[in-house]
Amino acid sequence: MFEGNHSAFEIQVINLLVTIKNQNKDIKSILLQNNKELTFELPSDFPVSLPIVIAQDINLLEEYLRSEAKLSLLILYLSKLGGRDITNKTNIILRRLISNQLAVRYSYLGTRQEKKAFKSTILNKVVIRAVLSGTIATEQEIEDAIKNG
């Protein structure tokens, strides 16, 4: 692929860049297809109904979101929900993702009352990236909104 003497580190970095480039190409293709349709709906193979009502569906969704392309599509979908400020947008996204009856089983850090840690879920990453899309916000502001939401 390339000439000359390269260290193992350089080869590893180049291989990772090639992988990232291929993933970006796939994501771009999916996003272009979605933009052609001008709808921001969830993919037909989306494994759960939103908002999530049962805990097992969080596990199903997190498994599904291990694909960066599928993760990006959910983030795009959620980022289009809007909101008048960071807190409002965060709350709208959280309410679309998780029902109130399931949300009460979580706290942000999972340190109180035997609750699960939302921070350690892929859904936390999804919420942060969806809010960051189209807003000027810091991760800390979004995390605070999640904690207080």
TrEMBL record:
Write down the species: Acanthoscelides obtectus (Bean weevil)
User: Where on the tree of life does the source sit, at the highest rank?
Assistant: Eukaryota
Which lineage? Answer: Eukaryota, Metazoa, Ecdysozoa, Arthropoda, Hexapoda
The entry's protein name is DUF4806 domain-containing protein
Residue intervals of the DUF4806 domain: 48-129
Q: Matching InterPro entries, A to Z?
A: DUF4806
| Pfam families reported in the protein's UniProt record | DUF4806
